[in-house]
Amino acid sequence: MIEVKDLQKSFGELQVLKGITTTIEKGERVVVIGPSGGGKSTFLRCLNLLEEPTGGKVIFEGEDLTDPNADVDMARRRIGMVFQHFNLFPHLTIMQNITLAPVHLKMKTQAQAEEEGRKLLTRIGLLDKADTYPDMLSGGQRQRIAIVRSLMMNPDVMLFDEPTSALDPEMVGEVLQLIEELAKDGMTMVIVTHEIGFARRVASRVLFIDEGIIKEENSPEKFFTEPKDPRLQDFLSKVL
Amino acid sequence: MEIINTIVRQFRSTFIIDNRYKVFLTGFKNTMLITIVAALIGIAVGTVIAVIHNIASQKQRHKNLGGTLIRLLDKLLTAYVAVMRGTPLAIQLMIWAFVLLAGKDKLTVACIAFGLNSAAYVSEVIRAGINSVDAGQMEAGRSLGLDRLTTMRKIILPQAIKNILPALCNEGIAVLKETSIVSLVAVVDLTRASDLVRSRTLLAFFPLVSVAIVYFILVAGLSSAVNRMEKRLAKSDRG
Description:
Chain A is of the alpha/beta class. Chain A contains 9 helices and 10 strands.
C-alpha cells in the first residue's frame, strides 16, 4: 500500500531521516517506536507529505507522491491522519468538524455525511455532543472525534502521530481502545506511540527508528523479547 | 444676552444663510463615500496580498512556473507594501491625481488612492491574523485532502477574523480621518466644506468644531459596532 524508498529529510543543516526503506502492506498495523528526536514523527509526516521529503520516494498505491506532478490532495483523502494535539477545528461544531471535508470534496452530500457522522458518533458514544464545540469536550473525547473525522473519509490507511501523548492518563485508555477496534476491523495503520503495552497488543510489525534510520524491525513477539540492536535494548530497558 | 446673540448669529451664518448646510452635507457624503469605498478596496486587495504572501512563503514543492510566478508576485507586492507605508499619503494622493490618473474624476481617484494605501496596512493586519492561528489547523485541513486555498477559506480565516477585526477597525478609523487631506486634490469632503464656509463667513468656531464633532461621532460609532461584533464572535466561536 505504501512503499518507502530511501526516504530522507533535512531541516536546514539537520538531517532527521537518513534513508528509510520499508513497505506497508494492506492490513498491516505498523507501530513505530523510538526515542524523541529520532525521526519517527517526521517519518510518519512524510508518508502523506505534510513534510516534504528531501530525498527518496514515497509510493502510495503505485503513485510516487514525491513526483511534483503527483496529486497529493487526492492521495490524502485516502490517508487518514490523527495528530497528537487533535487539531479539531475550534470554530465548528463536532458535526461540522467531521462533515466539512467529505461534503466539500463532494464525496458525500450533507445529508449522507450527517447520517454517517451520527452512526460513527453513536459508535463512540458521543452522539449527544454533535452540536457542541470542541472546547466543550475532554481530551480523550476530542481525540476520538478526530479519529472519526478521519474515518469519515473512508481512508485506506490511517496514520497516528502519538495519539495519546497529549492526554491525561485516565483518558489514554478510551483512545487506545478505539484504535484497537479499528485494527480488529482490518484497518491498515501506522502508529507512532510511546505506549509499549498497546504496541504489543495491536502491532503486526514494530519498527525502531533512531538517529534517522530503522535500527530494527520485527514481529512484536520477537521485537520486545529478543531485541538485537544495542540502542533498542537500552531503550526497552528504560521504558519497560 | 450678548453672547447668546453672537452664538445664534454665528450659527445662522455658518449653516443657514445661503443654505450653507448643503455644503456640509456634500462634504459629509463625499467623506463617507471615500471612506467606505477605500475601506472595501483595502480589505479586498489587502486580503489577496496576505493570502498570496502566505502561499508564497510555504515551502514550494513545485519548482515549476506557477511556484516561480507566485514568488515573483509576492516580491512585487512586498515592495508595493513598503512603498505605500514608506511615503506620505498626501504625496501618494497627489501622484494618483496629477500623474498616474491625471484628468480622471477626482472622487474616483481619491477612492483608489486611499483604498490602495489602506490595502498595504490591511495586508499586514491579515497576515498577523493568519499567523496567529495554530499551524496544526492547516495541517489538519490538508491531511483531509482539502487544498491550501480551501483550508484557508474554511478553517484559517474564520479563526483569524477574531484577531483581525479590532486591528481592522483601527485601520477603518485611520482611513476615515485621513480622508481629511483629500482637499489637496480639490474634492469637497467634510474638512474642505468647513474650510469653504469659514473663508466665506470669516467665522472659525462653528465650521471647525461642528466637523470635529461629526468625525468623532463616526469614529465612536464604528468602534462600538466592532465591539458588539467581537462579543458576538466570542459567543459563537469558542477557542
